[in-house]
Amino acid sequence: MTTLLDVSNLSVQLANKVLLSSLSFQLDQGDYLCVLGPNGAGKSTLLKALMGIIQTKEGVISLNQQSLSELSQKELARQVSYVPQAHGQQLNFSVINFIKMARYAYHSAFSDWSSDDQQALDHAASVTNTEDFLHRQMETLSGGEAQRVMIAAALCQQTPLLLLDEPTSFLDPHHQVEVHQLIQNLNQQHNISIIEVSHDLNHAAQHSKHILALKQGKNIWHGPSSELLETSRLQALYEQQFVFTTHPQTGAVVALPSELKIGDEQ
Amino acid sequence: MKPVKILIIIALTALCILFVSPYLGLTVEDPAIAHHILTQLRLPRVLFAFIAGAGLALCGMVFQAMFHNPLATPFTLGVASGASLGAAIYVYLGFSFTLLGLDGGVLAAFLGALIAISFVYSISRYQNGFSPETLLLTGVAISFFFSSLILFTQYLSNLTDSFQILRWLMGSLTTVGYQDILQLLPFVSICVAAILWLTRELNLLMAGDDIALSRGVSVQKIRYSLFFVTSLCVGAIVALCGPIGFIGMMVPHICRLLIGSDHRWLAPASLLFGGSFLIICDTISRLIIAPAEIPVGVITTLLGGPFFLWLLIKSRSKGT
Fold this sequence. Notes:
Chain A has 266 residues and is an alpha/beta fold. Helix content of chain A is 30%, strand content 28%. Chain B is mostly helical and 320 residues long. In chain B, helix 8 (199-206) crosses helix 9 (209-215) and helix 11 (247-259) crosses helix 12. The interface between A and B is medium-sized, with 34 and 24 residues.
């Protein structure tokens, strides 16, 4: 497999506060990486660094063997797309206009909407199943619908790498499943590489391919997601005891926070 | 209704207002004097009002989009106070110079506006990155600061200068002539051209900085360019006719309710609506207690406040 993204020795500092320190990892083409970690571990900072938003203090991020700092914002937007934490319902746009705006990186000031653009739009809408409400206003959408539109817009950017920041954290269980399935579908059927920031351990263990565990800006574990659900690993990451059981239907291992505090047991 | 139809209606209305308003006012028997009043006094005044109103409305629209806040305008962020202070100091020092054909007062106001916006911007950057909210609060604080400096300048001035500053602070188009239009036009044109050029970027900025950046907008660069051109525009307008408030807050807001928030339509709509609106306010200001006049800034605020509240309540009840 070819390496899509190579982060080496990345450090980010903001006003004397270390947000990421000497972080290194690689992402293969077609990989699905879940970034886990306690609040303030630097997960969102990592996404921002990958989008070229934040000044890095040290280290190199390369996309397809090209350093991120050599790319213009528009060039980067043709490589990396981003779905922010849910706030789609606050936007005062029609769904179709919001998705169309995602083609910005392919346009100059007065260029027309091309057939390529239309194709990207149709594709994004059909994959995310948003065709039925393209002409509604963003404010009228439900949380699940809005999040699918945000993903559709990112898809419309036609990038090999998609970043998602807690895409399901404000959704009810039904819509969580729906969005999780959509993301998995993008990864498996459409070969889009994915980096997702998440707090949902069981989702990460079951659906993603690799896990990057961050704590205080450091990479404390990077490995296949099947190996995530181990007592010592989770305890080190979250400073919280976990117990394990199996899902009655799928038989998959499920982690649950323990009632006991660390040091209480046995 | 389609945006294009709404825009055509706004354009036709603007055209009517532009043609009718110079004929409104006291009539004079002598045709020669009447002709002079029409072409030399009222016509330049109406044209000036249109250009200034259009500029103020567009600058307001840009600020609202950049700070994702309907309360953000060049006035609430202190840019207009900066411009006012520059112009007030110019009056106080009694300078009178022109540079490259441009009036010294305009340059002083532009510098004031630019200093204010750099001030606002650097302070909010110093404090962890910049959130639109921090920027807005900084702007309000700086606005107060500059206002008291203006009062101080006024206090130091002699009675004539002080009165001149006071009248001008109320915002008035009384003494406007063709010369002023020539002074104003280049600044507003540059600003209008830049904003119309950047409508797609404004759409994305309104969706949030993170989204704009991830879509490929060089947010920082666009922000600096927009700060620069709006400072030019607001500086020139404030120097020539004083700070005329409320237009930049109200007009884009009304236009957004009429035509939606797509800046490709919103920008031309705000431009036409803003121009027409200031003409109407100015016409009212010279008719309502004719032959005397009220400063137009008083009218815009008196009209603007209640209208704004009414719209706010109306859109709330419709929204829920």
